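For this section, I looked closely at the sequence of one protein beside the tokens encoding its backbone, which the following lines show:
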Amino acid sequence: MVFCLGESLLDIIISSPDDVVVRPGGAMLNAAISIGRCNIKVTLISELGDDDSADMILTYLQKNNVEASFIKCYKNSKTSLALAFLDENKKPKYSFIKNYPEQRAIAENIHLTKSDILLFGSLYSLDSQIRKTIMALLDKAKSANTTIIYDPNIRHSHHLEDSKLNEAVYENIGIADIIKGSDEDFTNIFGTSDINKQIKNIRLINTNAFIIITMGENGVLADYLGNRINLPALKTDVLSTIGAGDAFNAGLISGISTLNKLEDQYHIKILQKGLEFSSLVCASLDNYIDINN
């Protein structure tokens, strides 16, 4: 089973006033839908309100094979929204409308095993209201030898101006088996755009993790036990970059779930799966791979 822990909201994607697309969104929700479309067992751990937006999201998850029993729906609450304005390079600029109640509680009665995968990250994983519960779940996953994948998804350096948030990112890096982020993420975390320095800084926190750094049109660089893998991006006519990193995570998990770790070039093949999924999402206005892929 794959467990995706993160925020759920409704994405309103705006190219112009006459070109608006609405999709269920949130980094881990996006990944979960792509994983569900691969017919891999997946469940989403998240929070919603009890409004029409929540109903739409829950129905969409069900249609896409995503189990939702660990989603907390708050009574008399609205679901969060994200306005995503696409620029000329098809990159989004976000405006969020968060609608969480004062008292929050994410699921705790989750059984994890060695054969499971737990994907988590983004600012959601740093949220002080639920941080204690998230850490308890991560500790449980570590004890069960569950494969933990962390995607920091830190799009702006000012997100880490609070030292406690910075410490939380370092904690997340330290506990993960696979650390996947964009070069932009790690520039914001470590204050340097030098990828060699980024990897060195990650290694000071976590000596053994499989490190994956996506670089947009420049492809992906990975570091595992001192071995470097550098793969080019796939040529794509980009319509939107929303969900590209989330799709990469889904492709990575698809590869991990279907390939034998002892297979020749295993690490290259799972990275190629990530690039493939990311390319598919960039070529559409959806946040997830096409259902026919």
Summary: The chain has one domain: 2-282. The longest strand covers residues 9-16. The CA atoms of residues 7 and 290 lie 22 Å apart.
